Amino acid sequence: MSLQSKLREADLAADDKITLTYSAGADVVHAYDDYMDSVLEQTGFADIVATVITTSEFPNEAISEMRQGDFLEDYERDFSGFESFVSKVLSENMYEFGFVDHTVEQYDYKRGFLTLEANVETTVGSVMESPEYLFAGWSTTVPTKIGQLKIDG
């Protein structure tokens, strides 16, 4: 069952605020400086996040944050390759964005597991109006009267 189907079943209002979450990770040798690059390459994290946040039918805060931080100024504005450009910007500036978190679980002094997580704020209506395939592997958290409702996609 898709994320949108589950949101439909939850009977939420279109203007309800939600947080979409995508998480990926891999084993790393954190003693080396390039472990973040290795995980980005292994998981395709930046590509998956860029696909969602650059979809024109899906207004979201993540792409707004990138614009406000002037990370998208070098884009040629020729309407080609924007998704790839955003993916590259994400990969090169992962530590600069408030919507991306990373944690390292250290197994010992040099090995561990790096988890990357993107949290994109939007509305139920924005998700419902977007293509279903976008949110494969994403989950969401929705505030309700009785607490947070987590829905896995």
Give keywords.
153 residues, alpha+beta, five-stranded antiparallel sheet, 6 helices, 5 strands, 29% strand, globular
Topology:
Elements: H1 3-10, E1 17-29, H2 35-43, H3 45-53, H4 61-68, H5 82-92, E2 100-106, E3 111-123, H6 124-128, E4 139-144, E5 147-152
Antiparallel strand pairs: 1-3, 1-4, 2-3, 4-5
Helix pairs in contact: 3-5
How would you describe this structure to a colleague?
Helix content is 33%, strand content 29%. With 153 residues, the protein is an alpha+beta fold. The protein has one domain (3-152). It has a five-stranded antiparallel β-sheet with strand order 2-3-1-4-5. Strand 4 (139-144) and strand 5 form a beta hairpin. The longest helix is centred in the middle third of the chain and has 11 residues, at 82-92. It is globular, with a radius of gyration of 16 Å. The protein starts with a helix and ends with a strand. The relative contact order is 0.29.
Number of strands: 5
Strand content: 25-35%
Estimated radius of gyration: 16 Å
Helix content: 25-40%
End-to-end distance:
7 Å
- Apparent shape: globular
Mean pLDDT: 91
**Assembly classification:** single chain
Low-confidence stretches at least 5 residues in length (pLDDT < 50)? Answer: none
Describe the main β-sheet briefly. Answer: 5 strands, antiparallel
Number of domains: 1
Succession of helices and strands: HEHHHHEEHEE
- Please work out how many helical segments DSSP would assign: 6
